[in-house]
Amino acid sequence: MAGGLLAIYAHPDDETFGVGGTVAHYADRGIPVTMICATRGEVGEIAPGTGATPETLGQYREQELRDAMAILGVSAVRFLDFRDSGMQGTPENADPRALCQAKAEQVVEPLVQAIRELQPDVIATWDASGGYGHPDHIAIHHHASAAYHAASDAAQFAAAGPVWRTQALYYSAIPVREFVELGKEMQKRGLSMGEAPGGTEHMESLPRVEPNCVIDVSAQYERKQQAFAAHRTQFNADDFLATMPEDLSRRFFGREYFYRADPLLPEGARLDDLLANLT
Questions:
Q1: Which residue of 5, 93, 181, 214 sits 20 to 30 Å from the alpha carbon of 101, by its own alpha carbon?
Q2: What is the C-alpha separation between 115 and 68, in angstroms, rounded?
Q3: What pLDDT, in 10s, does the model give residues 92-118?
Q4: Quick one: how far is CA 74 from the chain centroid?
C-alpha cells in the first residue's frame, strides 16, 4: 500500500525513542508506516540477564526492534546491512563495515529504491545533531536526506525504479531545553539522568533545529513504554527511563518533536500532524 510514513533511523531503539508514539499514532489510523533501520546495533551495551553476547547482539536487537514495532502496530520493518559504528571516538568507528564508513551511494541507493517502491507521503529521520551526536545518527540523517531528494530525480539511480516525489521531509528534533528541565526536576527529587552521551558540552555544541511540528502521543504512551521495554538488551533497571517518575515520563514522552525540513514552513508556523499542509 502506497503513501503514509517512512521512518529511517540508525539503530534498534532509535525508532521507539524518537518516533515510537508517532508511528503508533498513524498506524492506529490505518495509515501505512514502514520502519527502515540502517544497522542492527551490534556494538551496543548488553544489559545483564538477557543472554545476548557481543557475537549475537545484532540478532537480539533485530528481534527487539520487530517486537517493539509490533507493539506499536507496525509490521513493515526493513534493515540495511551496515554495522553499528559505536559511539564517537570508539575503535568501532574504524570498522570498514560500519555505517559511518560507508560511501554515500552505498546507503542512498537502497533508500531511494525503498522510497520509490513504497511511495511514502512523508519521511522522518534524525536531524543533523543525531540527537546526541552518534556517528550513525548523523550518517543516516545525511543519507536519508539525500535519498529523499534523489528519489524524485530521474537522473539519479535509474535502476532503483520509477521516480517518486515524497511530499515532506521531517527531522526528529529533540527539544534540548525540555531535556534540561527534565534533568533539573529529577535532580530536585533526588534522582539522576546520568551524564549526557559525550558530555554536556558536546551536547550543547551540536547543530540543532527548533521543532515546528509537535505530535501529541499521550494516547500511545503506555504502548510506547512497552516498546521501550522490548529493547531488553539496552535497558537496565537503574536507567533513567526506568527510574523516571510517572508524571515526568508522561510529560516528556507524551509528545514527539519534529522539524519540517522540506518544504520549509513559513516563519512561526506550527503543525501538529506530519501529514498536514502537504501539496
A1: 5
A2: 23
A3: 999 999 999 999 999 999 999 999 999
A4: 15
Q: How far is CA 208 from the centre of its chain?
A: 15
Taking alpha carbons only, the member of 43, 196, 71, 189 closest to residue 63 is 71
Helices 246-253 and 221-230: crossing angle in degrees, nearest 10, is: 100
Residues 6+ apart with CB under 8 A from 254: 21, 216, 217, 218, 221
Q: Three-state SS for 242?
A: helix
Q: Which residues contact 148 (CB under 8 A, 6 or more apart)?
A: 115, 123, 166, 169, 262
| Contact by Cβ (8 Å): 27, 76 | no
Q: Is the confidence at residue 1, as pLDDT, over 60?
A: no
Using an 8 Å Cβ cutoff, are 152 and 164 in contact?
yes
Sole residue written with cell 545525511: 142
DSSP 101: G
Q: Which three cell numbers stand for residue 115?
A: 522510497
| Residue listed under C-alpha cell 526536576 | 185
Give 122's strand partners. Answer: 5, 168
b/e string for 227-241 if b means 16 or more Cβ within 10 A? Answer: bbbbbbbbbeeeebb
Closest C-alpha to 122, from 13, 262, 254, 268: 262
DSSP tag of 140: H
> DSSP 3-state assignment of 50?
coil
